[in-house]
Amino acid sequence: MSFDGITLAHGVGGPKDLPISPELAIAGATAALVVSFTVLAIAWRNPRYDAATSGRPAPAWLVAIVDSTWWRVLWRTLGFALFLYVGVAAVFGKDLVINPVFGVFYVWWWVGLVPLSLFFGPVWKAISPVRTINLAFAKVSGSDPERGVFTYPERLGHWPAALGLFAFVWLELVYPYSTELGPVRLWVAAYVAVMLVGGALFGNVFYERADPFEVYSTLVSRMSAWGRRDGVLLIRSPLANLDSTPVRPGLVGVVAVLFGSTAFDSFKDSTHWVQFVQGSTTSAYLLNNLALLTFCVGVGAIFAAGTMLTGLGDDLQRRQLPDLFAHSVVPIVVGYVIAHYLSYLVEVGQLTLIQMSNPLSNGTNLLGTANLDVSYWLSYHPTLLANIKVLAVVAGHVLGVIAAHDRAIRILPRRHQLTGQLPLLVAMIAFTVGGLYLLFAA
Q1: Which UniProt keywords apply (predicted)?
Q2: For burial by CB atoms within 10 Å, which of 112, 186, 291, 359 has the most?
């Protein structure tokens, strides 16, 4: 799908955007991981991150603002106003590529949540329209939005969120009619319906654990400088904040879908895959479905194997290890999302802002942005763009190794603290090499 010179499909723009040697980038990234692990093994022998003690209280003036009722109401109002505005475009707007619904849905909502959550914390929790509607229902009925009819089953954990995320990436990357209004409206309607029913049944804990976008945003926000302990707003290092990620069932499934789907998005545009699909007698739709599933399951399986192939203490079971280490994949996900979608977010994000002034595609300029021009500055500096992408991938993996190392020396018996990490290091190297290869192959 293309308009105004921009292709509305996720991708990194192909090798022309990466005018550096792929072999050198991959070799350098692998060396960085190995050197990082070696240095950590020598100099980092005691755990340094503890969610129970890390961080310092935020300034009183900032706490007074962030914890005030008017601040929460402001962001709920803005989030719901945006929801209604885009809803009008979805219901009454024309089924054309210039309808801003597609940019809001695929760019602002999906990709934009990453930088917003990195800078400001769990953004979706603050502006979620389904939380706002559920709150309104609770006020009218005199009930407590925190409490539902039933207790949310602990064994479900984040698995519903993982399925919701997979449903989104399937629509975006595989479904052949993803850029038609009908399927997008149906997907959003189903999402809202499931969220409202879940909130009524289980209370706000349902959104914390099962809303795919809240789980996604909150997980990314673990790499921000903002955290909380016992309700108190804290400022702490991103890695210390990351260590506070709650360990729940399905956490590996969430990060596997996030990382695997982004990798598949690169892979599906590679020359080898395109040629294979074109030369196959099997339908491209079926092949892409199988490939997306394979990427997501494959990432989860590789990571699970890398964490489970280690010695254990008496108080741990092997099946617990993947979720205990899953937080270490979050920096990798963030790095790869930045590498894969940076120019897409900047350029199509601007175009979406322009289109927002004309929600019904009838020539209006409601927001005063219709006459703005898209800046292609990043695309005009391919060497800089290439370096940013490679650095994002490498930095994400190095931070992942640090997070995994700190967790390992806390929970593994001393005799396995280093050797037990080697299988996970191999998995990290596989992710790095595969991620960079796909950046160049697309």
Answers
A1: Membrane, Transmembrane, Transmembrane helix
A2: 359
